[in-house]
Amino acid sequence: MNSAHEQITADDEFLWLEDIYGERPLEWVRSQNAVTEEVLIDPGFLTLEGGVLEVLDSTDRIPMVAKRGTHYYNFWRDAAHPKGLWRRTSWESYTTEDPEWEILLDVDALSASEGTEWVWGGALFLRPPEGQEYTRALVVLSPDGGDAARYREYDVTTRSFIEGGFDIPTAKSRISWAGPDALYVGTDFGPGSMTSSSYPRTVRTLTRGQDLSDAELYFEIPAEHMMAVVVHDSTPGFERDIAMDTIDFYSHRTSIRRGGDWVQLDLPDDVNVSLHREWMVLRPRTDWTVAGTTFPAGSLLVIGLEDFLAGDRALRVLFTPDASTSLQSWSWTRNYLLLNLLRDVSSEILILNPADGWSTESLDAPALHTVDAYAVDDEDEEAGDDYWLVSTGFLTPSTLSRGTIGSGHRPVKATPSFFDEDAYAVEQHFALSADGTKVPYFQVAAKDLVLDGANPTLLSGYGGFEHALTPAYSGVIGRGWLERRTPEGRAGVYVLANIRGGGEYGPGWHAAALRENRHRAYEDFAAIARDLVERGVTVPALLGCTGRSNGGLLVGNMLTSYPELFGAISCGVPLLDMRRYTKLSAGYSWIAEYGDPDRPEEWEFIRSFSPYHLLREGVDYPKTLIWTATSDDRVGPVQARKMAARMEALGLKDVWFHEALEGGHAGASDNRQAARMHVMSYEFLWKALTGSL
């Protein structure tokens, strides 16, 4: 062989499973599914599935809305409408217990009439002329729940697709309105139009009535970059076209259209940029020195866009992180800036007033809860400074409130209770990782928890892409885990890990576990597992862990590197073959997170966290369920397939595999599929840990 890569590829006896829709691989999938379903699906499974589906289909849950003009739009799934209804109502009706909804699109009926199992992907409205109502939107529909979707022009007044209107075929597209009769289209135009990451490389201007093949090139990026996007800011008085060259997950270049040319903003590639009217807000991912002043990673800065383009670099600091506090997001109302912060993974909200020298006030937020504030409609003349406030906690059903800056807020809707929250308590603990770092985690357990190591415990985590895991109410977790009881009466304990690689403490927390430092995320998770045992919550035989996507890679590493810490592992829609991940589905786009296995010096550290290559004979691995979806076009199902096949080939008996034949990266395209997915994981873990599997 000419290279280590060729040797490893030649030694991969399960490459044939990478043919996603091939007859032989699908036969293997169906055979594995039958075995797993035979073991797990029994009357108790079906009862729990019914209880979880009741949560997901509940007609009392909050119908979250987006305001467009005078209407409030919502997408809704329930038992009668598994694929969902796109609908709208008025504010007066929305505030009642039983709003009157105008049905715009019945996705179940559409699927039946067109013979395609459409999955809702959202709607992109065209801004109307001043003083007029919103009438047109691009409706986004996926044929199988994957990322590839079709965009079709829709009229909400006639409640119908527009004959002869815009209709972009199914692809991994990025599309925005350029005006009433034009779109900026990034899609698969044929050879050379997509990046190595399987996203659009070019953006073209498509005018009404024009064939897609005749669309004129407007913006393009190199093929090795991740994705090209162009959006039109239609804010009156601030109209502009903005282009984004996304180099990788954490690097991008932003350009503004001026005088027929693209003017690239003079910023480091790792500075996040957002524009609002005259303001440009910046968040550096690494320390950034400008004109002799160093702004720390994770800070938030502001400057006038025109001032910046003219050469001014007098950046104003709006937020500076500290060891316990990070900025998670920000949102503009018409005249104010809302900041959503985390302090030791509990929410804080700040309101900044640019008209008063960026003065700051706080909104109250309860401890160990997540509270998000964001604008209702920053372009509304009367309600432009209104905001939504969503508050939730592990034992606090979510509440949606609406407020006006300066006038307080009041509750509008609340999630019903799905389990006896009063029987449980939430605690936050800190484990000491291998390098001495304190790593937080939340524990949800019965108030009468006995610390004698006899409690079935589920540890969940993610640890990647600067994504923070925060407290949130879940009737599914309540019914699926917390309310379960052993014959001795012990309740399930649920634990959420806030390991490095995530965004709980800002970009530094994330960067600490990137690429060659990936092991820190796994050391953190292992430290929490050990801490649970040391505190007497559980023992390894009663400790299970679960994760999805990057979290699937996390628990895959628990399986292969820390098998002695766990009794069972549920690994969902996972990355596992880190030698070939860049060649599978959208994997190339994650090189900035994990490294490039085609570079020998990087494969040396990547192989240390590639579960598919870490499996060994003679190891006593925990009981394992690996689950995925055929239509997942982000991670793809093949890594899960190959891992299960290799474990089986090693003679491991306690390994089960399940693949949903639809559902995309979420693993489910409707509530029925979601309930089956959740219960498959919970039932496996409970039975494996309590000795009934």
List keywords for this structure.
693 residues, alpha+beta, Rossmann fold, 8-stranded mixed β-sheet, 15 helices, 21% helix, 34% strand, disordered N terminus
Structural class call reads alpha+beta
Strand order of the largest sheet: 32-33-35-34-36-37-38-39
Oligomer: single chain
Query: What is the radius of gyration computed over CA atoms, rounded to a whole number of angstroms?
Result: 25 Å
Q: Let me know the CATH homologous superfamily of the domain at 4-53 and 418-690.
A: Alpha/Beta hydrolase fold, catalytic domain
**CATH class placement of the domain at 4-53 and 418-690:** Alpha Beta
Q: State the low-pLDDT regions, or none.
A: 1-8
Question: Averaging pLDDT over every residue, what do you get?
Answer: 95
Query: Globular, elongated, flat, extended or rod-shaped: what is the shape?
Result: globular
Strand content: 25-35%
Helical residue percent band? 10-25%
Q: What kind of sheet is the major sheet?
A: 8 strands, mixed
Q: Count the E strands.
A: 39
What fold name stands as the CATH topology of the domain at 4-53 and 418-690? Rossmann fold
Describe the structure.
The chain contains 15 helices and 39 strands. With about 700 residues, the chain is α+β, with helices and mostly antiparallel strands. Strand 26 and strand 27 form a beta hairpin. The strands form nine sheets. An eight-stranded mixed sheet has the order 32-33-35-34-36-37-38-39, sandwiched between helices. Strands 5, 6, 7, 8 and 9 form a five-stranded antiparallel sheet that branches. Among the domains are: about 5-55 and about 420-690, Rossmann fold (3-Layer(aba) Sandwich), CATH 3.40.50; about 270-320; about 320-415. It is globular. Pfam families: Peptidase_S9 (PF00326), Peptidase_S9_N (PF02897).
